[in-house]
Amino acid sequence: MGGLGPASSYVLVGFTADQLPLSAIDLILWRTNVLSVLYGTIDDMKICLDLLAQGIVKPVVKTEPLQSINRILDGLKAADGSIIGRRVIVPSL
């Protein structure tokens, strides 16, 4: 949770199979709030897109050829961390 200052919030939007290692002592000492929501409002989305536009948030997106679809789906189903971020399937690759 590096990059957070004292009395800050770590907000999770959406869901993932990834593990989130947290240190209880760090959360307590740094007075960090951990919040999670499955879906956000339109205003939340605008804020997220603004952070993206400013380069503060960096998405993890990788393009893959259509031939990789079974491997990608297997990785998503396994939820073993082999698929990180988003995948965009491009038939012409």
Mean pLDDT: 86
Distance between the termini: 36 Å
**How can the largest sheet be summarized?**
2 strands, parallel
Number of strands: 4
Question: Which percent bin holds the helix content?
Answer: 25-40%
Please tell me the total number of domains: 2
| Morphology | globular
Summarize the entry for a quick read:
The chain contains three helices and four strands; from the N terminus they run E-H-E-H-E-H-E. The protein is of the alpha/beta class. The model has no long low-confidence stretch (mean pLDDT 86).
Report on the structure:
With 93 residues, the chain is an alpha/beta fold. The chain folds into two domains: 1-58, no CATH class; 59-93, no CATH class. It is 30% helix and 22% strand. The protein is built from three helices and four strands. Helix 1 links the parallel strand 1 (9-13) and strand 2 (33-37). The longest helix has 12 residues, at 42-53.
Helices, strands, pairings?
Layout (H helix, E strand, L loop, with lengths): L8 E5 L10 H6 L3 E5 L4 H12 L7 E5 L3 H10 L7 E5 L3
Parallel strand pairs: 1-2, 3-4
